Amino acid sequence: MSENILTAQSNIPSASGGGHTIGWLTHDQLQGSLPDEMVQRFCEGAEDDDNWACYDYHDDYDMFFLCIPEELKDKESLPKLGAYISKNEVLVAYTHWADNNSDYIPELIKSVVAKKSSPHRAMLAIVDWITKNDSVLLGKIEDRISSLEENTLESTNSELKISNNEISAVRRQLHPMYQMYQQLLDTLEDLMADENEVYSETDIKYCNRIHNRVERLYKTVINLRDYLSQVREAYQAQIDIGLNNIMKIFTVISAIFLPLTFIAGWYGMNFNTMPEILWKYGYVFVIALTVAIVLGCLVIFKRKKWF
Fold this sequence. Notes:
This protein is α+β, with helices and mostly antiparallel strands. The chain has two domains: 2-240, Methane Monooxygenase Hydroxylase, Chain G, domain 1; 243-303, Methane Monooxygenase Hydroxylase, Chain G, domain 1 (Up-down Bundle), CATH 1.20.58. It contains nine helices and five strands; from the N terminus they run αβαββββααααααα. It has helices at residues 2-7, 36-46, 104-114, 119-132, 134-153, 164-193, 201-267, 275-278, 282-303, and strands at residues 21-26, 53-57, 62-67, 80-85, 89-94. The protein has a five-stranded mixed β-sheet, with helices on both faces. Strand 4 (80-85) and strand 5 (89-94) form a beta hairpin. The radius of gyration is 35 Å and the shape is rod-shaped.
């Protein structure tokens, strides 16, 4: 069945050595080009939103699927990749971003075929290409987090140049990358297990190199998530400091007016037995007492650096 699938495509070149063949087509070309059962498997694997990467074993062939998060769109890549893999044949089905070069996959496959490599090397080369420049993108995200941290630490609460939404936006960007790398690590480990023995020793070594890179990317994403959590904590600390300053001002004001309120209540009773009521300097005395209390509170609070 695999020979019919492959030879039905006019753009499938023959690789060197024992009739090895490899083919490529976009997902739009699946219908009418492959048996309905195989089309269904490709589509189900490509449209499973819960799986960013997976590797399925079957009796005489394997299937590999990889979905690239939207957050990685700003690097040259493709959103979905599926591959049918048997002993001597590989069929790659893919989609591409509308603004990217859709001819890159065929050119990459042709270059691998020209080097007289196995068809499996072409499929691995695509995975290699997809993850090759991710460290640059993660570096840009790290710079963005550093900028958020700098703006947070150098600003007062009233001058904060960032918001919680900006921090959340970076976190939303890292989350699907974390999931994809985690699943891709498991997928590459399944591939290297090679239960159907379709890969050569050289291919396994090549896959191991890709696995090591993805593992580094995965650890980098974890570190960036931790770094972002620290920035969020610093941001929250700045907010708390601002709220504490506001509460301190209200406390100082309340402390000043508390004795004044007591004096107003005391003399507001208007008892005739109070000597200050009939004293001709009583009104001036209360005013002087009030001013003295306010000034005294301000001096004490200033010495204690409460404001």
